[in-house]
Amino acid sequence: MPLYFMTIAIASPTEIVANRIVFSLVFCLLLITFTRSWNDLRVLLHDRPALRRLALAAVLITANWVTYAFAVLNGHAVEASLGYFINPLVSAGLGVVFLKERLTRLQWTALGFGLAAVLVLTFAYGSVPVIALTLAFSFGLYGFVKNRVGRTATAVTSLTVETAFLTVPALVYLGWLMSRDESTVLSNGPGHFWLMAASGIVTAVPLLLFGGAARRLPLSTLGTLQFLNPVMQFIIAVALFGEAMPPERLAGFALVWVAIILVAVDMLRRPGPPRMARRSATATALKQDGTGPANG
Predict the structure, then answer these.
(1) Which of 45, 110, 225, 268 has a CA 20 to 30 Å removed from the CA of 160?
(2) How far apart are alpha carbons 171 and 63 in whole angstroms?
(3) What tens digit of pLDDT does each residue of 274-295 get?
(4) Domains of the chain: total
(5) Where does the sequence pass through the membrane (predicted)?
(6) Is residue 199 a part of any domain in this protein?
(7) pLDDT, tens digit, 9 for 90 and up, residues 192-219
C-alpha cells in the first residue's frame, strides 16, 4: 500500500480516499454480480441493527484511510507502521473494556509494554504519536464494530454497504474538487486515472481475503500473520523512503516488538480447535463467503 500510494502521490490524501470509496463500491458490486450474491445483500439491507453498525464502521474506516494516506504521503510511514503494531494491543484492550474478556498474564504484560512504548515514543517525537494512535484505535474499533454486525453480513456484502454509505459524500467532494480545478483523477492522463481506479481492487481484495481468512484459520495463525503488515510497512519506510530512525524512536519500537512477541507466544500456547471442528467451520465459511459450492 505505501508503494502504491507513491504512484498516485500527485493527488491529495482526501482525494485518494474519496476515489478509494467510489471505486471500491464499483468493484464490490461487480463481485456481488459475479458471485450471484444479490440475495445476500438484500437480506443485509433488511437488518437495521447491522446497517447501523456498518454505518459506524464506515466512519471509522474512513478516518483510518485518511490518516494513513496523509502519513505515507507526508513522511510519516514509520509512524503509520507503529499504529498497526499497536493495533492488536488496542483490540485486546477493547475486549477487556467492552466485552469483559479476561487476559492472561502474558497479555497484560504485553499491554504494559505497549503503554511504555507509547510513552517512550511520545518523548522521541516530542509529542503524542497522534498518527499511530489514530490508526490503531480507528482500525481496532472498526474490527470491534464489524465483529458485532451479525451473521447476515458476509465479507463482500458488508464492505459493499460500508462503501455505499460513503459514496454520496465522496462524489460530492470529488465534484467540489473538479469545480475548483483541484482534481487529478481526470486531468493527469489515462495512466493516473487507471492507477486511481485500481484503488478499488487494492482496497477491497485485502479486506475480503482477510474476512475469508478470519473464518478459516486458527486465531493463533491469523493473529501472528497480522504482524507481517506493519513489519513490511516499517521496512519500506526505513529502507526505501529513508525515514529517520534515531535511537530513542528505535527504543520505543523495541518495546512494541517485545509486546508483539508476548502476544504471539500467548496465541501459540492456546489449544487449537479439533480437526473436525475446523473442517466444519471451513465448510460454513465457504458458504457464507459466497466462494464455495453453495453459491456456484
Answers:
(1) 225
(2) 17
(3) 443 444 443 443 344 443 333 3
(4) 1
(5) 20-38, 50-70, 82-99, 130-147, 159-179, 191-210, 222-244, 250-268
(6) yes
(7) 999 999 999 998 888 778 767 766 766 5
